[in-house]
């Protein structure tokens, strides 16, 4: 009975997405319907971090493609190790919603100690040295564990980039917890335990099934499935940016994230306005929201969204503005990741 209640509550959390109206599953058509079906089949539920993209079908497909093909689909890395990366990146990005979700998933996979440490903000206390090193790498604080094969390293990098992206979207459009506010404090522990069971992955689905949701994109011949998925998603996000983000704003954000070291820019928002000075006044609201999304999405608030609404009265334009900036930052974060293990010649990590 509790599981059923939690499932219903999760469906209702689609109503808790801020600023935009999510397409309801019964009303989904075309590409949105196709993505929703894959999400419910392969992820087990229509996750709000994906559904919030639905005002822009192409951004929805791109977000699902990077999540599915990096975290969900079968590969050489274990799902538990990929959940370590997802949770650790989310903690570094100060995204409590994603930390809670992926710590629960990690705990359900038999790693409750690592899950608790990451959720508590003490990943250095993780007992297993490989898991501790993997969490540190995901936060940009060290190399990969010794002996990680190249294909596995690429999968870890894919998960990291996917969550640098999703953390930013969640920070703007969702609250701090996957559980609805209506769940009383006395019931939250039990509800989290049930949700953890619901999040426990089953058999990993075959890789590549999200590719047909997006057009093929230019890239090196013979690219692997994961690279192909990210190339298609990148092209979709770039097209969204061309539709919904002024070119001067895109140039400014690209320059800022390229020069950035990935660390939080500060407790306040004083860094934003001087950067915006080069934009014409009519583009500063879009520039502000894009910059905040890219570098400190947890600081973006209702006033920042309201300021862009006069130019972007439709939900599609707002989703595309934020998603373009989020992916620009995520791609830059991926370029900063080192894929070299601590020692190249040591035994491989568990699969």
Automatic annotation (TrEMBL):
What is the originating organism of this protein? Amycolatopsis melonis
- Note the superkingdom of the native organism: Bacteria
Q: Which segments constitute the Carboxymuconolactone decarboxylase-like domain? A: 59-111
Name of the protein this chain belongs to? Carboxymuconolactone decarboxylase family protein
Q: Which InterPro entries match?
A: AhpD-like, AhpD_core, CMD-like
């Amino acid at each position: 009975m509790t599981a059923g209640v939690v499932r219903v509550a999760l469906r209702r959390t689609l109503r808790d997405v801020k600023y935009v109206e999510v397409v309801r599953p019964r009303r989904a058509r075309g590409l949105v319907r196709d993505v929703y079906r894959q999400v419910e089949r392969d992820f087990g539920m229509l996750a709000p971090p994906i559904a919030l993209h639905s005002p822009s079908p192409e951004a929805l497909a791109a977000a699902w493609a990077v999540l599915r093909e990096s975290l969900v689909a079968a590969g050489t890395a274990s799902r538990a190790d990929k959940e370590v990366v997802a949770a650790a990146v989310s903690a570094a990005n100060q995204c409590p919603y994603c930390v809670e979700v992926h710590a629960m998933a990690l705990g359900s996979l038999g790693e409750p100690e690592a899950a608790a440490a990451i959720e508590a903000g003490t990943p250095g206390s993780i007992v297993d040295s490989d898991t501790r090193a993997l969490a540190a790498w995901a936060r940009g604080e060290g190399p990969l564990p010794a002996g990680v094969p190249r294909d596995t390293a690429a999968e870890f990098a894919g998960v990291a980039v996917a969550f640098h992206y999703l953390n930013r979207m969640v920070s703007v459009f969702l609250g701090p917890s996957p559980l609805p506010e209506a769940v009383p404090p006395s019931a939250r522990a039990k509800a989290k335990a049930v949700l953890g069971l619901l999040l426990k992955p089953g058999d990993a689905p075959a890789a590549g099934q999200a590719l047909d949701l997006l057009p093929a994109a230019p890239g090196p011949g013979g690219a692997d499935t994961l690279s192909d998925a990210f190339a298609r998603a990148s092209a979709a996000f770039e097209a969204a940016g061309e539709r919904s983000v002024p070119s001067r704003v895109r140039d400014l954000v690209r320059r800022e994230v390229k020069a950035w070291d990935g660390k939080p820019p500060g407790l306040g928002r004083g860094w934003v306005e001087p950067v915006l000075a080069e934009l014409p006044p009519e583009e500063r609201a879009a520039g502000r929201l894009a910059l905040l999304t890219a570098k400190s999405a947890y600081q973006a608030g209702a006033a920042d969204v309201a300021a862009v609404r006069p130019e972007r009265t439709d939900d599609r334009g707002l989703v595309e503005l934020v998603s373009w900036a989020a992916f620009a930052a995520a791609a830059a974060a991926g370029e900063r990741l080192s894929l070299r293990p601590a020692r190249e010649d040591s035994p491989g990590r568990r699969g």
